[in-house]
């Protein structure tokens, strides 16, 4: 069925509601109570053209800006290829990228003096490193929260794990020279605010020094052995594995070493913050009780088979997927075919390097014909497991790491 477009400002227009009702063949009762920015599930996959180079089965969550999700079964590759990588943009793509004259300026209160590097300077004057790094949008899983929260209604697929090549941010900062009062590094990119106002920043987030100085934190120009695709930050990107992917600044042109917690766009308010203690679903939380999300929580995804698979009684079903745990590693992976009553241990590989996802596999037989669900649950190196139902509700719908589940029919 062909669905009407949702309103670009993020809420549903009356005229769209009317045509949506006619497509559905029924009224959207309580449409007036939908939170601003909320996309009804029936509309959550927009029809339309994907950006060039993307796999045709990716799901468009919005097209201005581009927000495109990878269905779980398309995350099956060990290393996420560019055509299957989710897109999360806060603004419009930069225009007129000139690689030859691209520069990165490092400034801020806590540098001895401001320095500017060309791409060539970075490539020739520092050692190169390649790491496979998990980048998960903090809003991944948002569609699972109830009451619903506004923003892209991601299911499971706002996560990727590609190989990034570049230089260590640490090595470059060392060359610049830092003052002892440095606490945070904030990024700026050249993407354009949707208003078109060149003075407005789309997003400018950052990380504390301890994360900025880690071995795996890169200033990268290559992804999976090729130039970074335009959508994913060409020609230079800050890549920080294990933390909300929002800290991995695309189209990187400037870094600011701050003596305060960086105060760029989307560092304040409720952005990328969750309550510092559990709250009841739907609660209003005072700003002072919110904290910035740092390392992402333990999570896993079933990438094979695809939900809805049908098999014959007696057949063994191979299962596989990936799991990750922010700055930690995953120590155990389990699956259940009986709604969590009993669990079976999976085989689990070590990550290719720190902050890369880990592959798991299992094989299962079903006792009789019928409908089943397979649930997958990871446990991190500190003993924390994924929850089976919605975890801590929060006002912006971040870090939902509930178990991924797929449907199976045995005939
Ligand atoms: N300059 C810039 N960097 C950005 C963003 C952006 O809109 N502009 N989006 C951030 C967010 S919220 C996410 S989840 C990731 C998405 O990375 P990807 O589109 O390469 O998958 O990029 C981050 N870096
Ligand atoms: Mo994100």
Automatic annotation (TrEMBL):
Keywords: Metal-binding, Molybdenum, Oxidoreductase
Keyword presence, Transferase: no
N-terminal signal peptide: none
Entry GO MF terms: heme binding; molybdenum ion binding; molybdopterin cofactor binding; sulfite oxidase activity
Stretches of the chain forming a coiled coil according to its record: none
Required cofactor(s): Mo-molybdopterin
Superkingdom classification of source: Bacteria
Protein name listed in UniProt: Molybdopterin containing oxidoreductase
InterPro entries recorded: Ig_E-set, MoCF_OxRdtse_dimer, Mopterin_OxRdtase_euk, OxRdtase_Mopterin-bd_dom, OxRdtase_Mopterin-bd_sf, TAT_signal
Domain Moybdenum cofactor oxidoreductase dimerisation: 291-410
Keyword Oxidoreductase: yes
GO biological process, one term: sulfur compound metabolic process
Chain ranges of the Oxidoreductase molybdopterin-binding domain: 91-259
Species of the source: Arundinibacter roseus
């Amino acid at each position: 069925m062909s669905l009407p477009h949702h309103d670009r400002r993020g809420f549903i227009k009356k005229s769209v509601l009317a045509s949506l009702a006619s497509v559905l063949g029924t009224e959207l009762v309580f449409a007036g109570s939908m939170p601003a920015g909320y996309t009804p599930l029936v509309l959550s996959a927009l029809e339309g053209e994907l950006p060039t180079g993307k796999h045709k089965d990716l799901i468009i969550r919005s097209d201005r800006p581009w927000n495109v999700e990878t269905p779980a079964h398309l995350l099956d590759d060990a290393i996420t290829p560019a055509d299957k990588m989710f897109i999360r943009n806060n603004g419009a793509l930069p225009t007129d990228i000139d690689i030859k004259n691209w520069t990165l300026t490092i400034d801020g209160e806590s540098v001895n003096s401001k320095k500017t590097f060309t791409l060539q300077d970075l490539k020739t004057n520092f050692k190169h490193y390649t790491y496979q790094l998990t980048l998960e949008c903090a809003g991944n899983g948002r569609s699972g929260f109830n009451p619903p929260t506004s923003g892209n209604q991601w299911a499971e697929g706002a996560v990727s794990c590609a190989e990034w090549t570049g230089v260590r941010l640490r090595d470059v900062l060392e060359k610049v020279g830092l003052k002892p009062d440095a606490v945070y590094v904030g990024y700026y990119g050249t993407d354009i605010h949707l208003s078109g106002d060149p003075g407005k920043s789309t997003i400018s987030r950052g990380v504390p020094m301890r994360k900025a100085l880690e071995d795996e934190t890169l200033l990268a120009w290559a992804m999976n052995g090729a130039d970074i695709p335009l959508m994913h930050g060409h020609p230079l990107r800050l890549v920080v594995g294990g933390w909300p992917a929002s800290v991995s600044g695309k189209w990187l042109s400037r870094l600011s070493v701050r003596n305060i917690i960086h105060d760029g766009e989307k560092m304040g308010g409720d952005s990328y913050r969750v309550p510092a203690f559990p709250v009841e679903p739907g609660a209003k939380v005072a700003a002072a009780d919110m904290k910035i999300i740092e390392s992402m929580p333990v999570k896993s995804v079933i990438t094979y088979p695809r939900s809805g698979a049908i098999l014959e009684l007696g057949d063994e079903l191979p299962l596989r997927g990936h799991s990750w745990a922010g700055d930690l590693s995953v120590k155990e992976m389990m699956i259940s075919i009986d709604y969590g009553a009993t669990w079976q241990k999976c085989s689990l590989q070590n990550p290719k390097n720190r902050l890369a996802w880990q592959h798991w596999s299992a094989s299962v037989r079903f006792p009789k014909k019928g409908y089943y669900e397979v649930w997958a649950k990871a446990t991190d190196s500190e003993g924390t497991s994924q929850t089976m139902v919605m975890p801590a509700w929060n006002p912006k719908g971040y870090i939902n790491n509930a178990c991924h589940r797929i449907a199976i029919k045995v005939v």
